[in-house]
Design a protein that fits this description.
The structure holds 2 protein chains of 2 kinds.
Chain A (H helix, E strand, L loop, with lengths): L1 E7 L2 E7 L5 H8 L18 E4 L2 E4 L12 E3 L12 H8 L9 H14 L5 H8 L10 H10 L2
Parallel strand pairs in A: 1-5
Antiparallel strand pairs in A: 1-2, 3-4, 3-5
Helix pairs in contact in A: 2-5
Chain B lengths: L6 E4 L3 H11 L3 E4 L5 H6 L7 E4 L9 E2 L4 E4 L4 H7 L3 H6 L6 H6 L2 H7 L5 H9 L2 E6 L2 E6 H4 E3 L2 E2 L6 E7 L6 E9 L6 E11 L5 E9 L6 E4 L10 H14 L10 H22 L2
Parallel strand pairs in B: 1-3, 2-3
Antiparallel strand pairs in B: 4-5, 5-10, 6-7, 6-10, 8-9, 11-12, 12-13, 13-14
């Protein structure tokens, strides 16, 4: 067991991890942050995407021990209490959410996109969204939500 | 937990990493970006006894582009994508998986994984790159054309690490182009080609290299293709496309039969050569 200390959504958190514990499972089971979803567990679906030091990564393809000392952002960090942020509100208003399984990962990738490119073109949104599988929405409403949330 | 248990070793210097590899041999795998190794471990297709984590090795994270382009092993795809250090590599990077994968995945990890469907191995073969392999007792350079020996198989020894990629400067009057066909950008491509053509002052072609991905057990290089000596006119390009179609050896994928892959290769070759020709300054 290794002690892993991270800053998650602005808070210092630490817990023990076996080397083989994936970051996704560390967040969910050790830190209780179950907003990050686990889908395919081989990097394809994008549901587990979180931001590590500001960059989107698949938390199912990184070991928790590798995150020691890093700054992590998960979907739990987006809203201010019960108040959804602008992107989250647009996802609701544009019907970008149906079952919600992919949503946490989508929100984190789109957060990274909008930070780097505050006014993305539709192709840029689609390219960033190509890192995610959504089996409900057909993607169109997610694209609309991200474009509506852009400045 | 998905992966089987392993001993986690962290290398804080290149020397330490090579010493650990010499000690553990093929029982240990280097962990760079982990974007191919960790999925294999999650499926338990790979069950290494030990991982040697290279991520603290900032000394291997660099792109030096004064003259010859040198790319350190731990350079992330995302860094190369943003660097615009080479026209062909810059064109390729957005096709290498998706952003969250490119954040972590490394250049040497990609090359050492030697997936014949991967873009960068084909690019390195087309560009005549060479790769530096280091071990405890020294180093050697391996030509990209000799590095890829089979699917997921390279010329690296059990005690060696791929530490640097050296891409020669493009000759004057050279044009490059990369094209691939995938169901979505970033997914594994059904076929792809990297084209590099050079002409002399009279606009006569003096060198042509075409390297294909998803076209055989390794990146498939087609040199010349009948283009040398021509003016890269449309007829010569059409003939080169036919030559290349016959030279590659696609095996068929879930999404494309071998015959369809060959057909795509012909179409992409024509289009890529026209574009590479028109890009010659």
């Amino acid at each position: 067991m290794t002690r892993v200390a991270v800053i998650v959504n602005g808070q210092s958190r630490e817990a023990d991890a076996e080397p083989r514990l994936l970051l996704a499972d560390f967040l969910r089971h050790e830190l209780g942050l179950t907003g990050t979803h686990v889908g395919c567990e081989h990097g394809v679906c994008g549901a587990c995407t979180v931001l590590v030091d500001g960059e989107p990564v698949r938390s199912c393809l990184m070991f928790a021990v590798q995150a020691d000392g890093k700054t992590i952002e998960t979907v739990e960090g987006l809203a201010d209490g019960d108040k959804l942020n602008h992107l989250q509100r647009q996802m609701r208003e544009q019907h970008g959410v149906q079952c919600g399984y992919c949503t946490a990962g989508v929100l984190m990738s789109m957060t990274a996109l909008l930070r780097e490119t505050p006014s993305p073109s539709e192709p840029q949104v689609r390219e960033a969204l190509s890192a995610h599988l959504c089996r409900c929405t057909g993607y169109q409403n997610i694209v609309n939500a991200v474009l509506a949330a852009s400045s | 937990m998905k992966p089987a248990p392993f001993t986690y070793l962290v290398a804080h210097s290149l020397d330490a990493a090579l010493a650990l590899k010499a000690e553990h041999g093929d029982e240990a795998r280097f962990l760079a970006g982990g974007q191919s190794l960790v999925p294999a471990m999650n499926f338990r297709l790979a069950q290494p006894a030990a991982l040697i984590d290279l991520n603290p090795l900032d000394e291997l994270d660099y792109i030096q582009s004064n003259g010859t382009l040198r790319i350190g092993a731990l350079t992330r795809h995302r860094a190369l994508e943003k660097a615009n250090a080479h026209p062909l590599l810059h064109e390729i990077m957005p096709h290498v998986a998706h952003w969250p994968i490119r954040t972590r995945g490394t250049i040497a990890g990609n090359l050492a994984h030697a997936d014949p469907a991967s873009e960068l191995p084909a690019a390195m073969v087309a560009l005549g790159a060479r790769l530096k392999a280091q071990c405890n007792s020294g180093e050697r350079w391996i030509e990209a054309t000799d590095f890829f020996t089979g699917p997921l198989t390279t010329a690296l020894g059990d005690d060696e690490m791929l530490t640097e990629v050296e891409v020669p400067t493009l000759p004057e009057r050279t044009g490059t182009c990369f094209m691939e066909l995938a169901r979505r950008q970033g997914d594994y491509a059904m076929m792809g080609v990297a084209a590099v053509v050079t002409v002399d002052e009279m606009a006569t072609c003096t060198a042509a290299r075409l390297a294909y991905l998803s076209a055989g057990p390794t990146p498939m290089l087609v040199s010349d293709a009948g283009l040398v000596g021509t003016t890269l006119d449309d007829d010569a390009i059409a003939a080169a496309a036919e030559t290349a179609k016959a030279a590659i050896d696609p095996a068929g994928t879930v999404h494309a039969s071998a015959a369809y892959q060959r057909h795509i290769a012909g179409v992409l070759t024509r289009r890529a050569l026209v574009k590479a020709r028109d890009r010659i300054a």
